[in-house]
Amino acid sequence: MTDDDPVGGAMAVTDAFLDSFNACDAAAHAATLAYPHVRLASGRLRLWQDAADALPAMEQGMTALRERAGWHHSEWDHRRAIHAGPAKVHLDVQFTRYREDGSVIGHYPAVYVIVREGDRWLIAARSSFAP
Questions:
Q1: Cα atoms in the Cβ-side hemisphere of radius 13 Å centred on 110
Q2: Residue 55 — pLDDT band, cuts 50, 70, 90?
Q3: Are 90 and 82 in contact (CB under 8 A)?
């Protein structure tokens, strides 16, 4: 990826985002986000000022998802650039959550806003239909 490839940067950070989520690595997951970070899901707006603010919610969410739904992993169904500029990309995404036996928990469309901060691409905001 080069500075001239904003969509490539957005894809790389969203790969790291999902890989760290699947590994239940909250610290690595938090490192893929820009702060302050906005998440709109389950009818709630969450604003995390920094990684220390996000980590407890991420750890709790990962644990609850495993216990409540039997979640094992998630996969991207698609990631499509809606708009792309030199420092910001809007992605139309959808992911599916799976149980260990491969059965589907649900499909969740979302919009992600990816920004470049210095030489890094990070997820600044997410609006999804995921619980």
A1: 27
A2: very high
A3: yes
> What domains sit in the chain, N to C, each tagged with a CATH number?
6-128 (3.10.450.50)
Cα 71 to Cα 102: distance, rounded to the nearest angstrom: 10
- Burial grade of 3 (CB within 10 A; 0-12, 13-18, 19 or more): exposed
Residue 16 CB neighbours (<10 A): 17
Q: How far is CA 64 from CA 20, 21, 26, 31, 129, in A?
A: 16, 13, 13, 21, 17
Burial class (CB in 10 A: 0-12, 13-18, 19+), 111: middle
Instruction: Write the pLDDT tens digit of every residue in 6-53.
Output: 999 999 999 999 999 999 999 999 999 999 999 999 889 999 999 999
The span from the CA of 36 to the CA of 105, in Å, is 30
0.85 cut: is pTM over it? yes
Report which secondary-structure segment, H or E, holds 108: strand 104-117
Question: Edge-to-edge strand order for the sheet containing 71-84?
Answer: 44-48, 33-41, 120-128, 104-117, 88-99, 71-84
